[in-house]
Amino acid sequence: MEPRRWRVTDWDRAHGLAQETYFPHRLRVRERYRPDFRLQAVDLGPVLIGRIGWGGEVAIDCAYEGSVEVNAPLSGLLEWQGGGQRLASTAGQASVFAADEQQPITRWSRDCEVLGVKFDVRWLGDRARAGFGATGPLLLPRQLDLRRGPLAEWWRLVRSLHAAGVSNPAVADSLADAVTTSFLLCVLPDERESGGGVGSVQRVVDALGDAPERDWTAADMAAFAGVSVRRMQELFAAELGLTPRQVLQEMRLDRARTDLRRGDDTVAEVAATWGFTNPGRFAAAYRKRFGCPPSLEARAGQILGR
Length: 306
Description:
With 306 residues, the protein is α+β, with helices and mostly antiparallel strands. The chain folds into three domains: 4-185, Jelly Rolls (Sandwich), CATH 2.60.120.10; 192-244; 247-305, Homeodomain-like (Arc Repressor Mutant, subunit A). Helices cover 44% and strands 22% of the residues. It is built from eleven helices and twelve strands. The strands form two sheets. Strands 1-3-4-11-6-9-12 form a seven-stranded antiparallel sheet, with helices on both faces. The radius of gyration is 22 Å and the shape is globular. The model has no long low-confidence stretch (mean pLDDT 90).
């Protein structure tokens, strides 16, 4: 599942590509010269991360059918109307477009390039209910500040996933879950929850240890803890100083080390077996945990195995 990339200089072709990737919409071109349209999209199934720039000033009428769209300008200006408000976003801010609601973009400036996250609204709602106990329709803020706090961390995750692309469909759902869960942790009301403790954390750790190869979602883990995703994160931070996903990554790195020491498979094969789709990131995480690169471990394993 490789990123989809296009660059075109024809308005009709640009409009068609944007509709195929995102939503049906009406495009109004506000400048006469040819566009320099660029689009790069990473499709994780229920979540799509895309970078798009029109290279010309446009306005867009769209109802965002079946999806919530979060658009963050990397440059330029994005002006739109939503919830009876006139709003504008620049770099460091994100516009949140609710599903199935007319929210016209009144100005997408010529120099505006957007990195956006498109969530399937059913997926988003299911994750909110399963992991956070949400009831009723999701009420999301219309605009986000991505420059500080948890949203800044979420934004770094989004940017890194888009930059890396995805080549292994086997991990697409887990990546989509990571993007969705961290987003919901940022935007849903923090309703303080008690309950859980050392036993809850240990149940999750035991379950992860029994099947680290499983495509775990945050909701799956929280079910073993018997608490919400938010509460599970709090308990892990208090007891272990780590997130559940960090614990899972450490377990997978331990298993990868065992496989490398056998000397039967290449570093790339071992990394892929344990869900690491980016060799560079795998090598960095491995070195951080064990103090040596995985290639050195693999060579030692091959020598000892002779």
